[in-house]
Structure prediction request, 150 residues.
Amino acid sequence: MSQYKFAKDYTMILQKKGNNARNTLNQKGQQLQTAAANFQQKLQNNGFTSREQAESQQAAIQRQQQSLQELQERLAQELDSETAKYNEALRDSLNHFLAEYNKIKKYDIILSKAGDNILYASKTYDITQEVVNGLNKRYKPAKATEESKK
Prediction:
């Protein structure tokens, strides 16, 4: 993947998005810290004219903190979603290429040096359904399960 241009380009895009998210969160976090410090200082110096005013400002700081937490969760979800899309696109790209490539080369199996070891395998080597059928044939449901089905 270190030599595949698609992978290198998308890695850079994801890094930029991650950096932008961190910068945004850091900026909002600093704003929240400043507001909290100002509130605390004003509270200690009896800078509020009423208890209601202090409670109102404290509530505003709590809403700001909640908003920051929601932003952090949303940005993390967006980055995770983007990463998942990239991984899917990468895998799809690789699979399609190998299928075309193998029309000429006629390999039975193509292995990777790392990670997912099998990159391509002839369908004749796929024994998944045989294994599932064997497992299902061997499985004996518990009597409680059989009775609940009746």
User: Anything to note?
Assistant: The chain has a mean pLDDT of 87.
